[in-house]
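The records we work with from here on pair a chain with its fold. Here is one such record, which you should read through line by line:
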Amino acid sequence: MNEPEFRAYAEAEEFREPETRIHPPHKFFDTHAHKDDLIVLVREGSLRVDYGDKQDMIGPGDMCQVAPGIDHTDKAGPEGASFVLAWRTPR
């Protein structure tokens, strides 16, 4: 998926305006959960999202969705990560 497709998907699915983020190499977020739905599209680098029982490793052009209330960790890869994310209040 490319960024224009991601933005069109986010709008069609009623996510809020997408935001661009950049994380340095190996940036780690300890176990947490979100109150809103989250979608993420990696532009450059990679991200690993670990749900405990499964992991998503996403790279350029890959999208993942994290449902609200799901405990997870996330970590940027060795080259860092540039990505676009969007939030949506649970339906």
Observations:
- Helices lie at 3-12.
